[in-house]
């Protein structure tokens, strides 16, 4: 059995979904506030990827913008790699996320792992 991030193992039903939705919403707020950017980028993304879900495109968008503010290209590519990994066998999820993020990726000048050739390594 895979360990959970946080205390979600004790809650069941809708309360877990509501709590996660509220927490993910606060993620976007933290990434927009410059004071929390560095802290959240290093700890929050790790926690977010630990959940059994693929983050919404708006959360990934906020994380990529935080990476740009910190001039951290490597983290932005790692985030996209993690999203692809989290999508797992569901082949339609990752292209959808990239489609939703395409304007942001173009605006910030961020390449996808496929554009960098990292999917062949």
SSE blueprint and pairings:
Blueprint lengths: L13 H19 L4 H14 L6 H13 L3 H15 L5 H16 L13
Helix pairs in contact: 1-2, 1-3, 3-4, 3-5
In words, what does this structure look like?
- The chain is mainly α and 121 residues long.
- It has a domain at 52-116: Serine Threonine Protein Phosphatase 5, Tetratricopeptide repeat (Alpha Horseshoe), CATH 1.25.40.40.
- 64% of the residues lie in helices and 0% in strands.
- It is built from five helices and no strands.
- The protein has helices at 14-32, 37-50, 57-69, 73-87, 93-108.
- α1 (14-32) runs antiparallel to α2, α1 runs parallel beside α3 and α3 packs parallel to α5.
- The longest helix has 19 residues, at 14-32.
- The radius of gyration is 15 Å and the shape is globular.
- The N and C termini lie far apart (30 Å).
- Residues 1-18 have low confidence and may be disordered.
- It holds the Pfam family COX5A.
- This is Cytochrome c oxidase subunit 5A, mitochondrial.
- Keywords: Heme, Iron, Membrane, Metal-binding, Mitochondrion, Mitochondrion inner membrane, Transit peptide.
- GO terms for molecular function: metal ion binding.
- Pathway: Energy metabolism; oxidative phosphorylation.
Total strands: the figure is: 0
CATH architecture term of the domain at 52-116: Alpha Horseshoe
The chain-level structural class is mainly alpha
Q: Using the CA coordinates, give the radius of gyration.
A: 15 Å
Broad CATH class of the domain at 52-116:
Mainly Alpha
The CATH topology annotation of the domain at 52-116 reads as: Serine Threonine Protein Phosphatase 5, Tetratricopeptide repeat
**Largest sheet at a glance?**
none
Q: How much helix, percentage-wise, in residues?
A: 55-70%
Membrane topology: Peripheral membrane protein
Keywords: Heme, Iron, Membrane, Metal-binding, Mitochondrion, Mitochondrion inner membrane, Transit peptide
Protein name: Cytochrome c oxidase subunit 5A, mitochondrial
Subcellular location: Mitochondrion inner membrane
